[in-house]
Amino acid sequence: MADRVYIFDTTLRDGEQSPGVRLNMDEKLEIGRALVDLGVDIIEAGFPVSSPGDFKSVQTLSKELKGVTICGLTRAVPKDIEVAADALKPAERPRIHTGLGVSDIHLEKKLRMTREQGLDAGVKAVKLARKFTDDVEYFMEDSGRADPEYVYRVAEAVIGAGATVLNVPDTTGYKFPSEYGSLIKGIIENVPNAGKAVISCHCHNDLGMATANTLAGVLSGARQVEVTVNGIGERAGNTALEEVVMALTIRREFFKVDHGISTTKLLAVSRLVAQRTGMLVQRNKAVVGANAYAHSSGIHQDGVLKDRLNYEIIDPHLVGAASSEIILTARSGRHGVRHRLMEMGFAFPEERFEKIYDKFLEVADQKREVTSEDLRELVEVVQ
């Protein structure tokens, strides 16, 4: 039986930190309900101590969303934890997510702490959080640039204090997949009590490695992935939920893990988040981009029309798309044009089709895309 990977969605917390994004309560509830329907396991609803609005968001989502764990983020500060616990009171399954930096850069430059002080603060934070809930996640910020030996020490200490989930963030997107995978593996092999906690991947995309790093973490034994819809988030963004989920789905025999996501709802949730946040999805975005199942090259059109598997490893229906799309351009071949004409109800003798195709090429050289309406006009003109 395959292992289960838990999907921790932070669209409403880390995703909303994207510059220019601001969601109102109704929009957060709409997205939150869509995430529950999608099948995510944990929703990180906000950072309650940061503002009255965030407190209300976490409180409201805790009250309204059922059948899912609701998580509130805190620093390793008593007031943060107490405020989060208060906001999470209505939740069916509350989780407090606390922690602090473990890299020397963060300890010295941001926190003004020694390693020992940081470790001690982390242990105290977990013990306090456990007084409010038995589900406590500890984040070791900037693990990607930290001394692994210190990471192991912190991990052992906070798990010993009661952390049930250990978050290993590559906060600045610094690691490459082999390195991040080794970090996860090192924790599992060198932390004596690692088996008492779920190891979680939280990766950023500064070097375009977020999805690859997260998947490397899963291969190394992590069983929670922290993601956002469309990969939105700080700077270059977070790991994209849809990319990780479809990688685990399409390559299930390779990863040997299961998840609880209803993949046919991915495209609808992607579009909802794009509309509500105003962060448009690039056309060539993996899995949910407008061009993800579109073909304009004649060679590709010919291949996919003969058998979709020639050029598509994801069935469009699997993510909620209606179908593959043949885009007619100057690079399209006869097979693609004939296919579109047949869809429109036309079938012509070879000689007339060739005349239409020649005229099509003339039009295609002048336009980015030849539409069905353009083809209809060609049919009327070319006799």
Describe this structure in words.
There is one protein chain. The chain is α/β, with parallel strands linked by helices and 383 residues long. It has two domains: 3-277, Alpha-Beta Barrel (TIM Barrel), CATH 3.20.20.70; 294-381, no CATH class. The protein has helices at 25-38, 52-64, 78-87, 104-111, 115-129, 148-161, 177-190, 210-219, 241-250, 252-255, 266-277, 298-306, 334-343, 350-364, 372-381; strands spanning 3-4, 6-9, 42-46, 69-73, 93-101, 136-141, 165-170, 198-203, 224-227, 257-258, 294-295, 325-326. The strands form three sheets. An eight-stranded parallel β-barrel has the order 2-3-4-5-6-7-8-9, surrounded by eight helices. The protein has a two-stranded parallel sheet with strand order 1-10. The longest helix has 15 residues, at 115-129. It is elongated and about 85 Å long. The N and C termini lie far apart (63 Å). The mean pLDDT is 93.
